[in-house]
Amino acid sequence: MAIELFFNGVLTLLSSPASVAIFFAGLVGGLLFGAIPGVSMLTLGAIFLPFSGLLPASDAIMFYSVLYCSGTYGGAITAILFNIPGAPENAPTAFDGYPMTQQGRAGQAIGAAVTCSAIGGTCSVLLMMLATPMIADWAISNFGPPEIFALVLFGMTVASSVGAQTLWKGWLSVLLGLIVATVGLDPVAGIERYNFGSVYLLAGIHFIPLILGFFAIAEVFVQAEQRITGRYQLPIFNTAYPSLGDFWRLKIAVVRSVIIGFFSGVLPGIGATLAAFLSYNEGHRWSKNKSNFGHGELEGVVSSETANNAATGAAMIPLLALGLPGGALTAMMISVFQMHNMEPGPLVFVNSADLVWVVFAAMFFANLSILLLGWLETKTVLHLLRIPFQFLALGIIVLASIGAYAVRSLPMDVFVMFIAGIVAFLLRRSGYSVAGIVLGVILGKLGEQNFAQAMQMVTYDYLAFVTRPFVAILLAAAVLTVSGSLIRAFKA
């Protein structure tokens, strides 16, 4: 039955030249917009939204499904080549992808990103087709704000050991990110915090200017310093792809990242960004080459890109089965359903089963298409490394400034980006972890919001909070992680 429905979805996808054209528009548009810092797939989705009501329902929903897959991968290219993540979910890819570029292994890094993006996305879609209603019901009934807070806390304990010279600098990096996350309004009482009388800071510090400063601007400063001191080396141009042996060596990392990404995508509000960071952290935890992480370890790229693409298919599960969006783009898809007089939820599998399977088929073929388009893209964009630094640095600064301004059209975001770049440059020289700061910012807001909701759920009874099974397991894992890190630090 499922196979028949899938083939019906494929036939709908290929029913007309217009449908095929819309499929490729979403595919190419996601790759291009995902690769432009600050201008993500959400930008294209928002532009296209008013026009989606003019299209047949199947074409409109297919466009957003394909855009979600290709846009998540697109940001990996600039993350690897220039240390500029196209989107937050590609930030962990830069931690090892860019050092690989500096070592002349850009082709290997991009090849791994392309292949593992396709693997993660395809596995996620297959799992989505097999068990959407069942998995959605399980996730919603077993995972609420208490469990999500415990998951966030566990992620922070692992993040402290990634990219810093010492454990203490790792913890300070995460805590600095948490401090930045508190700027703005308290999520419960709406109390102003650390805004220093500025109206701009009431909304908090936006993540896109921060990440552009931490990566793009800081990297320009680092390379400029290297040129001044005579330590600058031209990037080595190499288009060699990873071998089959490389992928076989990392097979466990791929499977682990698919599971983490899929699980994170099923939970509303978690999404691809946290999936990528959690998978990167777990890759570091279980790797035999821990010391290589942050210095050009292929497993870091594989862990991040497999997980963030695995989260795309999984995020459709709560959307379709329960009508709960897992992120901004899936929230747009709810609007598309409503434009065509449909409401996502359990009845959508009864009333609009044909459209659901169009989504499944479109995402399946989109992930397969990423392999071919990603390969062609790699062969062309790698030539950007031949551009002299003085021109490339100017282009990076201009592009990053446009990206920071485009988010909210606020000049202050551009200033925040440059301040973040200077701070990240100084912290990197001192051995602190930019990865830890970024993760602290992301997890801080998510963790605080879910902790407040969790306390309200258990009426501020901490014992009831801890007795929830999944909360207890995740908190125990966090305690063991911290204990192990402390023991290793004292032994060293």
Automatic annotation (TrEMBL):
InterPro entries: DUF112_TM. It comes from the Bacteria. Keywords: Membrane, Transmembrane, Transmembrane helix. The chain crosses the membrane at residues 20-49, 61-82, 109-136, 148-168, 199-222, 258-280, 313-334, 355-375, 387-407, 414-442, 462-487. Coiled coil: none annotated. Residues 22-439 form the DUF112 domain. This is DUF112 domain-containing protein. It comes from Entotheonella factor. The lineage of its organism: Bacteria, Pseudomonadati, Nitrospinota/Tectimicrobiota group, Candidatus Tectimicrobiota, Candidatus Entotheonellia.
